[in-house]
Specification:
The protein is 8% helix and 41% strand. By secondary structure, it is mostly beta strands.
């Protein structure tokens, strides 16, 4: 028995020396799914790319328990001065993307007047100087966008979108022209919205003041095409996890060079409105859907606070994988064999910051004797540790 244990220990050490680098090469994620995050805990407004200074009068970074009731939490409050105007935050994203997801929490302050005509925010593709352009149908090479906002005097959220294939062609410079609304429950094809897939399958709820909502949206730019018949772009949104789309067969672009590149969250009023505005928190832009479960995702994260331990190790039947992260986010735990080939994924879900445990039982995964590697991946960072199974 001692000879067998010494032999296995020798193989264990040899495997570490020979194959551990292979794991780092083959199992390291190419990049994070997270593109940009902010929970307004940066202590300043420097991460935003607005042309104005985001003065406190309109953009107040303030203490508020936020959607999760946390002490010491900060949010961004947007309030618009009397008359026509707006308050916003703009982020030029670090790259350009064919498809993105956006998740944020929003609260309309108690006293907010939904009867006042307004616009909200979302995702945009195109040059910065065209951000906010309206009354013109895009040509397929300049821009497309979708913003989530309550329709005038209705309190129901819908997309307000400008894109190449929108229903109104805006050819008359003296005529009325505006972007598409999805779902377009106010027009069942009598004038616009002739495609049934752009109408409501489920009616969005009436928004209320004084409570936080988890808002999510996605835009897929689709294939660059030259006509509406071949279009495969799409948009979708969720309120508190409930899906209200998708809205498909959208002609968003005619060139592959036009990609999503700007996050724009705003409150814009056309006329008289209430003093009260909106509050924002926990913003995440990513290449995969985020969901409503992340409580903290800072704008600047380093894996130095990511910790992983496995005990007992070696083991014969089961072992506890323990990990700790300073921030919440998507957590993946994967197991690889000694030459770096992935066997299976043990954990893949969004978790809060803190310490977590997972019981690894060899019977559940039919693992034979030998050396394996456990890799923890979170927010684009990873840690790997070897394990040895002795039956």
């Amino acid at each position: 028995m001692k000879i067998q244990l010494h032999y296995i220990t020798y193989l264990f050490v040899l495997s570490l020396l020979l194959f551990y680098p292979l794991l780092n090469i083959q199992a390291q994620p190419n990049d994070s799914t997270i593109v940009f995050t902010s929970g307004f805990e940066e202590g300043n407004k420097d991460i935003w790319d607005d042309y104005d200074d985001n003065a406190d009068e309109t953009n107040l970074q303030m203490l508020d328990p936020g959607p999760f009731g946390k002490q010491g939490n900060h949010v961004m409050r947007l309030r618009v001065p009397p008359g026509r105007g707006g308050a916003d935050i703009v982020k030029v994203l670090p790259g350009t993307y064919d498809k993105l997801y956006l998740r944020w929490y929003q609260k309309w302050e108690t006293g907010y007047d939904f009867n006042a005509k307004n616009h909200g925010g979302g995702l945009y593709a195109g040059p910065r100087y065209l951000l906010g352009r309206s009354d013109v149908r895009p040509n397929g090479t300049d821009l497309f966008c979708a913003y989530l906002e309550p329709l005038d005097k209705v309190k129901r959220l819908n997309f307000y979108a400008y894109y190449r294939g929108m229903y109104m062609d805006c050819v008359d410079p003296n005529g009325m022209c505006w972007g598409d609304h999805f779902p377009c429950w106010f027009d069942e094809g009598e004038h616009i919205c002739t495609k049934p897939e752009h109408r409501e399958s489920i009616m969005p709820p009436l928004m209320e003041t004084g409570r936080w909502y988890c808002l999510e949206m996605t835009i897929d730019a689709g294939t660059p095409v030259q006509n509406d018949a071949d279009a495969d772009g799409s948009m979708n949104f969720w309120i508190d996890g409930v899906e209200y789309g998708p809205f498909e067969h959208l002609w968003l672009r005619s060139t592959a060079a036009l990609k999503l590149n700007i996050l724009w969250l705003e409150l814009f009023h056309h006329e008289a409105h209430s003093v009260e505005g909106i509050m924002l928190d926990e913003i995440v832009v990513a290449t995969e859907r985020i969901g409503c479960g992340i409580t903290e995702v800072p704008s600047s994260y380093s894996g130095r606070d990511l910790k992983l331990s496995i005990s007992p190790n070696p083991f014969s039947e089961s072992s506890v994988i323990s990990w700790q992260s300073a921030v919440g986010g998507r957590v993946r735990i994967e197991i690889y064999n000694s030459i770096g080939n992935k066997i299976t994924t043990l954990v893949d879900e969004y978790m809060d910051a803190g310490k977590h445990n997972f019981l690894l039982s060899i019977n559940n995964y039919q693992l034979a004797d030998g050396v394996y590697y456990i890799q923890l991946i979170s927010n684009g960072e990873s840690i790997a540790k070897p394990i040895c199974i002795l039956k």
